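User: Predict Flavoprotein domain-containing protein's structure from this.
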Amino acid sequence: MSHLVSEALGTLGVPIVVFPRVNAAHVRHPAWDKHVAALRKADVELIHGPDGWPLHEPREEPAGPPPEWWTR
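Assistant:
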């Protein structure tokens, strides 16, 4: 899937929405903020944070039910 995003970046008229389903350790990684900034600079709509998917620690289940918009 990441190759689709890579190819779409910079293509005029192609809206990109990315939903990184990550855990709290990923977000604490020193590179996380740079990755998010690079996606935003490329006009990527990034869905993350408490309204996207609540963070949880590695090897733990997310607290509570998934967000309402999540369909399985």
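Residues 15-61 form one domain.
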